[in-house]
Amino acid sequence: MDYNPDDAKSTWQFIEAGINKILVDDLTEGISKENYIQIYTAIHNFCVSVNSNVGGRGAPVSQVGAYGIHRGAQLLGADLYHQLEQYLTRHLTALRGEALKHEGPGLIDYYNRIWERYTIGAGYVNHIFNYLNRHWVRREREEGRRHIYDVNTLCLVRWRDVLFEAIKQRLTQAILRQIERQRNGEAVATSNIKHVIQSYVSLGLDDTQARKENLKIYNEDLRRPFIEDTRAYYREESRAFLAANSVVEYLKKANARIEEETARVQLYLHPSTENSLMEACNEILISDHAGDIQVEFQRLLAEDRQQDCHLLYKLLSRVEGLLVPVQDALQEYVQKQGLAAVSALKKETVAAGTPLDAMAYVQTLLRVQAKYSDLVRSAFELNPGLVQALDNGCKAYINHNDIAGPLGRESKTPELLAKYSDMLLKKSSKQANEDTDIDEALNGIMTVFQYIEAKDAFEKFYKRLLSKRLVHNTSLSEDAETNMVSKLKEACGYEYTNHLQRMFQDMQTSAEMQSQFKATLSKEDSAIDFAPAILAENYWPLPDFRYTYNMPQELHPVFERFQGFFNKKHSGRKLKWLWNVSKGEIKANLPGAPKAGYNFSVSSYQTAILMPFNRKDEYSHADLQSITGLPDDLFNSSMVYLLKARLLIQSPADKAPGPDVSYAVNLNFKSKKVRINLNLPLKSEQKQETEQTQKNIEDDRKMFLQAVIVRVMKARKELRSVQLIQETIEQSKKRFSPKISEIKKSIDSLVDKEYLERVDGSKLRYLA
């Protein structure tokens, strides 16, 4: 088709024919490259021609056009833009009429076809009008005419105003019905839905920035009705489903629905929909039924249904605050189960008539903790609130139960945990044959340790038992001991384990001194293996020796040699001998004994009792007690195990130890064991040690509280009593939980000592 480049009408007819091929004609034919270039050239020539006119030849160059006063190319650009706008309106009006004939899926299919054809064509049209875009449109927008768009945007604006506005409600309803069908399990063409929804986004045009994405149309015409439709759908479905099914089945259904909606966003909705869609699902599917779900948690816990607990957690964790009742329920349940397990252990112990086993007690505590720790990890994904609930529940039953004692009294758990540690770390431990086993067991100790409130009490009992293991050389291994101290140091810091580490250093120094001493002995002197442990009194919680005691005369030579050796090496230092924690080994060659004889492990008291029998076969009670120098209670309690083992025989046998009895060596002694331990703990000494340890704990706490109070007041200078008490509790809780009455007594003591003074009744002031 030919055209006159100087004639506007002729030129537009030529351009319009090309646009028809792009937007209207059969796509199989399309527009040729040559024709495409011709149209592009025609538009360029028309825009730059100053001789062309709108009405034909002879019109003045300066005219008033539809877009205001223009000159030359300005007028021609405006006229061409106006012609294209009118053409698009006519074309889209025809498409609109056809679209109004369709409903439902048919409308979606039709809209999708014409939208795809139109947007592809608009891209080509935009290219052939490139000169108009770069010059006339750009100048118009720079001068503030925001209703002028580049040709591609103009195509979208006309689509929106002419076609989309007329059918948008029907189109949105068609989309929503397709989504509903998909929710009902029917197959739908999601690709068509996706393309149609993309048009909602593309039509959201910003007048200030034509290429900037604007979701106004998508939000108002699709997202808002979609969310409302979703709410209505799930409100009815959830109500009906819960009425006919169990809560657990509902958990599965609700989780599946939320996953479907998340996938729907990824499949064809705009990503900005996800937040509002999830809020709607959370409210309708979860919040509206939270009460039923939370009540079900108790039953799931009782039945150990971890997978269902996980489903419940996944739902409730989506809404802030809904896990709070679950946390409370978990804390209460863990505490209840722990208390029940300890009560059952106590009943078994009482029924069996056996003493309480510290190992059984700690393992009972760990068994409950491990069970619900696994639940929190696997079902609740270590949610901080539920981890805290577990910790609170464990802390409650571990510190106070039927064995540890009720709330308000000093817990026995730290002492029992220390005893369990002692059982594991002794050579006689049957629980730790391999390094992996002992390490796991020590980790178990630290698990319970983290929950006990009186960590200072554990430290005192542990330290006392450690001192005995080191002094008596009964530790399983040095590695195991240092491993345990390292774990305590990691948990509580250097200060907590400082004394423990000094005890190891003392033992090393002592071993070196023993080696040096043995090097000074002659063969005759070294017949008796005398190995004293030289320890710094301040770091060792060993009980003082407060009784009379006559050391066996056989030990005197080597004892005096060591005294001289030590005094020469350390002038000015004084040795304090603790015979109450000493022990020895005696070899006995009795008639009928094995060739190597028997080796008896005995206390220093028992040594003093047995050694005189080298000189005489029988002694009266009075004579033997006089030789040993032991008071009645120690003599009688030390004699118990010698008589029980039948190493010594009492005469008469039916009388209690006293002035009227005598003792003789049992020359017919027999035992399947070659090594026999007679150095068993005395109940009276154990009780005294426990009482002394408890007293030390109380004394240390008083000093600790006073130190904390002084530290706080030194920094704050002046503080209200209530605030001081709160800060003292906060700084003390890592070691123990102080009672307010104890803190007040410490404050009163510091006032009496003039470290503090009272001001206005409710305030305290630090006195430098």
* Structural class by sheet pairing and helices: mainly alpha
- End-to-end CA span: 108 Å
> Rg from C-alpha positions?
47 Å
Count of DSSP H/I helices: 27
Q: Calculate the mean pLDDT score and round it.
A: 88
Beta-strand fraction estimate? 5-15%
- Sequence stretches where pLDDT stays below 50 over 5 or more residues: 51-73, 431-435
Notes on the structure:
The protein has 768 residues and is mainly α. Helices cover 63% and strands 6% of the residues. The strands form four sheets. The protein has a three-stranded mixed beta sheet. It has a three-stranded antiparallel beta sheet with strand order 5-7-6. A three-stranded antiparallel beta sheet has the order 9-11-10. A hairpin with a 2-residue loop joins strand 1 and strand 2 (68-71). The longest helix has 34 residues, at 683-716. It starts with 7 loop residues before the first helix and ends with a strand. 30% of the residues are buried. The model is unreliable at 51-73 and 431-435 (pLDDT under 50).
SSE blueprint and pairings:
Layout: H1 8-23, H2 33-48, E1 62-65, E2 68-71, H3 73-99, H4 104-128, H5 130-142, H6 151-183, H7 190-202, H8 216-244, H9 247-267, H10 273-286, H11 290-302, H12 306-316, H13 324-352, H14 358-378, H15 384-399, H16 413-425, H17 435-449, H18 455-472, H19 478-492, H20 494-518, H21 556-569, E3 583-588, E4 598-603, H22 604-610, E5 618-620, H23 621-628, H24 632-644, E6 648-651, E7 662-665, E8 675-677, H25 683-716, E9 718-720, H26 721-732, H27 740-752, E10 756-759, E11 763-766
Parallel strand pairs: 4-8
Antiparallel strand pairs: 1-2, 3-4, 5-7, 6-7, 9-11, 10-11
Helix pairs in contact: 1-2, 2-3, 3-6, 4-6, 4-7, 6-8, 8-10, 9-10, 9-12, 11-12, 11-13, 13-14, 13-15, 14-15, 14-16, 14-17, 16-17, 16-18, 17-19, 18-20, 18-25, 19-20, 25-26, 25-27
